[in-house]
Amino acid sequence: MKALLLIAHGSRKASSNQEVADLASKLQQLPSEFSCIGHGFLELTTPKVPDAVHALVEQGATHITLLPYFLAAGMHVSEDLPELLAQAQKAHPEVTFNLLEHLGAAELMPQWILQQALAPKN
Asked: pTM for this structure?
């Protein structure tokens, strides 16, 4: 079973963390090849990334795609996430993991920004 894990930094502001959880829920409602979509945080709140990975494995995930919900390749993206990936692979050797580039590196990002900038205001 394929799963997607949205990874964000985490915030002291509960509404910010809830936005990430809500986005994961919205993604789950869309048709995709992912049977399960979850979210995890690096700092400041839960679920932490290792716990979110474990939850997906418990739900039957055999392939987990990790999507860093970050705009730039700072220390978390360039160092912390590869380390977390190595830990996840060690903890769950039966699972195939795929760490994607951070969201800001997405090929469509410039188009999304212009689309948002030109969107009608409410």
From this structure: 0.94
pLDDT of 38 higher than 90: yes
Catalytic, out of 9, 76, 92, 102: 9
* 9 belongs to the catalytic site: yes
What pLDDT is recorded for position 71?
97
**Every domain of the chain and the residues it spans:** 2-118
Domain 2-118 bears CATH identifier 3.40.50.300: no
Chain mean pLDDT for the chain: 97
Q: Reduced to 3 DSSP states, what percent helix, strand and coil does the chain have, rounded to the nearest 5? A: 45, 20, 35
The secondary element (H helix, E strand) that includes residue 63 is strand 63-68
